Amino acid sequence: DAGITQSPRHKVTETGTPVTLRCHQTENHRYMYWYRQDPGHGLRLIHYSYGVKDTDKGEVSDGYSVSRSKTEDFLLTLESATSSQTSVYFCAISGTSGNYNEQFFGPGTRLTVL
Amino acid sequence: QQQVKQSPQSLIVQKGGISIINCAYENTAFDYFPWYQQFPGKGPALLIAIRPDVSEKKEGRFTISFNKSAKQFSLHIMDSQPGDSATYFCAASMRTGANNLFFGTGTRLTVIP
Predict the structure, then answer these.
(1) What is the chain A residue with the closest CA to B46?
(2) How far is A16 from chain B (nearest CA, A)?
(3) Which of A81, B5, B45, B59 is at 20 to 30 A from A99, Cα to Cα?
């Protein structure tokens, strides 16, 4: 998985609780992304980062926030989890040289909100 | 609004046959079109990608055909094998900005021995 780890890999939580998912890379890539995958929707971009402390919203950002204090770590936070946020979350990374469009994905985190 | 439309939703092919998955887009600013392969419980893995300056790209048994005027592209898997059984996603992105990917909804391919 291209030097990308995600933690936790599985999580069950209750509605209204805060949840933080972590993505860690060892590739020193500039860009990092958070996607969610749901049946019938493919993967949809939540937030992305183009450098330390530089982040922006994606297609489905409502209810999510992110932070990137180090090149290698990108955190996704659900401030108050809802059942609609039950999904599989994938982190991806992309470099700035050569085939900079290429995105490489982590193994995913399965989140269930009861 | 789905920026990349993918069909079919599912596909069953005999071993040795050709699997064909189609995608269409509207945004002419897209200039990079990758295909990803995903096995159950795993993250998507980049399979093959094409830019609009060529009409075809082949890597082993996998070929992308690209029709710029029709704004369509497709994945062909020749001599399909049971190990190819997976979900395939097409995607598109623009050169500018962070190169965010817009994905199709996926095709579940089953190759029957």
Answers:
(1) A104
(2) 27
(3) B5
